[in-house]
Each structure stands twice: as structure tokens, then as C-alpha cells.
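Run log // design_07
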């Protein structure tokens, strides 16, 4: 009579099934996690930010003139001018070298972006960058 030896291999098929299910879940949920306010940025040639610089403070001005602040408690909720000035001033007092950027909707009124720049001036911001979309090359 012969003895049978047991096979000591790991069955990886269930692990592959689990990984495929997780992959599908991540693929479905990733587009839903997009944050921010949709604005149509103007196109212009510009240099990208330095990779070593801290994360910028971004003020978004939509078509209707509503402002959104990236460092606010709720970045997707519009913010008043006074609250924006206070929060930007507080953030820059903690980290003075932090860049400040303004995203203005290309189809909005120019006055809306100028109003945001005036508020940033009241917050003692020394330098402001304007966010644009890169030009498409033919």
C-alpha cells in the first residue's frame, strides 16, 4: 500500500477574484471622487509650478462671480469675501511662502476676477498667479 502525500500549495484563484473585484470597485468610484468647482479656464502658454513649492492656495471664481477657497472647511461651498480674506491671511501668517493662485472662468466677467484680486490685496498677498489651461499644439 502506498502513502499519499498532501499537496502544500496556496490556492491563489480566490485571491485573484478578490483583486479583480477591488479593481472594478476602484475604477467605478475614481471618477466620482473628483473635487472642486468646474470652471472653463482660458488657454495660454504658462510655466508649471515648481514641484518643491508647497501646495498653493487656490481661489476659484466661477461664471456667476461666486468664489471658492481650496483651504476652506468646505472647498465646494462658495465663500464670502470677508471670510476669504481672513482665511488667506491666517494661512499665509503660518506659511508665508505658500503660493496663491486664482482660477477664473473664461466665460465669466473680468470684473469678478479683479474683485478676487482686490480681496487678496486686502489679505496682504504679495504675489498672485493666474491658472490657465495649456494651449493645445497642432
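design_07 sequence
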Amino acid at each position: 500500500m502506498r502513502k499519499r502525500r498532501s499537496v502544500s500549495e496556496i490556492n491563489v484563484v480566490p485571491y485573484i477574484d478578490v483583486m479583480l473585484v477591488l479593481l472594478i470597485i476602484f475604477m467605478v468610484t475614481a471618477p466620482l471622487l473628483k473635487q472642486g468647482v468646474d470652471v472653463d479656464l482660458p488657454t495660454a502658454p504658462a510655466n508649471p509650478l515648481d514641484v518643491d513649492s508647497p501646495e498653493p492656495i487656490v481661489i476659484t471664481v466661477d461664471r456667476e462671480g461666486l468664489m471658492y477657497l481650496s483651504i476652506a472647511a468646505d472647498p465646494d461651498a462658495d465663500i464670502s469675501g470677508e471670510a476669504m480674506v481672513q482665511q488667506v491671511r491666517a494661512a499665509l501668517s503660518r506659511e508665508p511662502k505658500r503660493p496663491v493662485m486664482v482660477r477664473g472662468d473664461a466665460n465669466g466677467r473680468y470684473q469678478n476676477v479683479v474683485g478676487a484680486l482686490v480681496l487678496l490685496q486686502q489679505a496682504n498677498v504679495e504675489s498672485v498667479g493666474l491658472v490657465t489651461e495649456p494651449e493645445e499644439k497642432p
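The longest strand covers residues 57-61.
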